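ARCHIVE CARD
SHELF: 3
SLOT: left
DATA:
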Amino acid sequence: MRAILRLLVCALLPVAAWGADAYQGVDSNLLAQVRADFEAATESGAATAALIGLLDQRLPCDGAEWPPVLLAYRAALEGLTGRHSHRPWQKYSRTRAGLARFEGLAEAHPESTEILLLRFSFCSQLPDFFDMQAQVERDRRVLIRLLAARQDPMVDDSFRRDSMRWILKNGKPTPSERQQLETMLAGEK
């Protein structure tokens, strides 16, 4: 999970160049801070709470007004709150709340590699009893297609390479997906 967060931090591009709907209305400074602090949130409950507080303070109370990419980060942070909890019920309920926040988000923004990557990296690390295996399989297939197509203006070459490496290491690709990712990586050197 840590490596995926590093690659999200590496995805920084000027917001003015972004045409993707998933980034509409985003404050580039806030997004840069969220990306930079997200890795620490994966390792620390306090960092997770601080980042949730920052988003909740800086953005409108109505989550429907948030830029979609920040909704995805908030969903992942909600899930991380569960991960960092010491109470089993809170682990479960906060993880479920994170999953609920992700519901339909990637489908509404199919051009966003970053949103799908956040959902995939979150869901692929969940225990089997959350029953997300089918979603993870679909997300991985779509994510590999998005990376191969190179159509997301928010994903630079470094982000693409780091994403492919993370999927190879942590995403349990099928043998054919593994070969495709390795071929794409080899072609970028």
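SLOT: right
DATA:
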Amino acid sequence: IEGIWREGEHVNHTQYKKLMAWLYFKWLADTSPRRLEYVDTRFVSGAAYRQMSDASKDDHNWVVEDKKWTWEVRKYKTRRTYGAVSFPIGRCLKAALRKVKPIAAAKNADGFIFLNSKWKPLGRNTFSTMVKTWFQTYLGKPWTQNTVRSIRVSALYRDAPKSIEMLRLAKEMGHDVGTQLLHYRQ
């Protein structure tokens, strides 16, 4: 990847795909995995974002470059249920985004990050295929974005009691599972 940085804004798409993979893995390390919202993500300054209408904000997801950088996810499958969400961008992801931004800006004036060979935003199907390819190439695993999401959830619940046991105990103790989860300590 070092040679790619020397190319800067003159990288070809094959080189840019390596940068996208690198950035994607940085993103996974910094935030919980989302579905495929990455493809709808654009760079925007904090001032420009604040001046946008809600309708304009809802058209895309945003890396908001402000005093504290955030990833504003406004375009996603379950938006009607959960509303817009905001994730703080950590130091490592922020550094990676800063490094990729001038290259992405040279290829796409609209601020998109994940780009196809014509330097337009990737489609979700293409991004999904790329994710599987990246995992196969760099980790030797044929994982999809759904697999990554499942792994994350499974890791969280790895040492948790089985649901049937939780339901049985709640019934026996005369409270709901929510109460158990609220007071559950390892």
